[in-house]
């Protein structure tokens, strides 16, 4: 800090310095300590509402670019960290028809809405997300020590402060985001514990999509694809496949086609839950329901009993999903988060999920389709000796 401040003074750059203090009772630390093998937080954990409020007001002391998109890693005065995704699209803008899912915009309001939906579905696998108005001059430019980030800031002809991502692809001034003149709304996602404390691994989704303009994956052409997956470790026992199906239901509701990988905490082994991270490409089209997202459910014809009961509850008039979401989102400072057509699309998609389950039950029977929660894994990874024996 001292060396940087001296260099900044020579270059006539102002660097805002903040004193940092560690609070052992901080809400972000309690959130980290509450993670268990079943979910990121318990159903009635008072820490989560407090963390959401804290993220709206915590003082930013350092900023770094993150990844190849317009994302920023914000460090706070109390050592908390959050991922900031800026506003790229107006609420009522839909993804253009000619856009492929892998070049779609990342939407800050989708991250916020996905957290609320995940909590309503009782999955609790999305880290807490809150909306916030950020002063990108005072809270980003003047506190960053990263020269790459400083170099992408500029003032627009309308005298607004703007920045763009420095990366290998389509990151240039035409794709910048601008404040008005300095204030920019975005989503703040709470960081998970560091990898040295809570290691995670990223695993390709068995129902991954092709990321070429005309490619197709096996699951798209083989209706019996799930029979093959059911024979493979770790999907041949335990909860992993059921958790994939939960994730597909969640993604169908938000319209997310970009789930190429999933992450798990290694500490919990095969019994652990799947993290539902990076949901910013959801809620792009309220007028279209992409049924292919439900392939894990429709091809495997399996669902956890608790998931089905929650879906059936949210289809009841007194607990309609759109109404519960609307009420939940009213607590965010950037509300309205979703337009009314997006909220009503949730009800329509929920009915389609229930129809898929009904077809499975008619064909196979309830005992085959509806599965108890937390099935104990009995299979293990194949060793080289096992593979030689099988041959």
What would the keywords be for this entry?
alpha+beta; single chain; 3-stranded antiparallel beta sheet; 2 domains; 5-stranded antiparallel beta sheet; 14 helices; 391 residues; disordered C terminus
Describe how the helices and strands are arranged.
Elements: H1 2-10, H2 27-33, H3 47-57, E1 60-65, E2 72-76, E3 81-86, H4 108-120, E4 129-135, H5 147-151, E5 153-155, E6 161-163, E7 177-178, E8 183-190, E9 200-204, H6 218-221, H7 225-229, H8 240-254, E10 261-265, H9 295-300, E11 303-304, H10 305-314, H11 321-329, H12 340-364, H13 366-369, E12 370-371, H14 384-390
Parallel strand pairs: 11-12
Antiparallel strand pairs: 1-2, 2-3, 3-8, 4-8, 5-6, 6-7, 9-10
Would you kindly provide a written description of the structure presented here, covering whatever features stand out?
- The chain has 391 residues and is α+β, with helices and mostly antiparallel strands.
- The protein folds into two domains: 10-190, no CATH class; 200-371.
- Helix content is 33%, strand content 14%.
- It is built from 14 helices and twelve strands.
- It has helices spanning 2-10, 27-33, 47-57, 108-120, 147-151, 218-221, 225-229, 240-254, 295-300, 305-314, 321-329, 340-364, 366-369, 384-390; strands at 60-65, 72-76, 81-86, 129-135, 153-155, 161-163, 177-178, 183-190, 200-204, 261-265, 303-304, 370-371.
- Strands 1-2-3-8-4 form a five-stranded antiparallel beta sheet.
- Helix 2 packs across helix 3 (47-57), helix 4 (108-120) packs across helix 11 and helix 8 (240-254) runs antiparallel to helix 12.
- The longest helix is centred in the last third of the chain and has 25 residues, at 340-364.
- It is globular.
- Mean pLDDT is 88; it is low at 168-174 and 387-391.
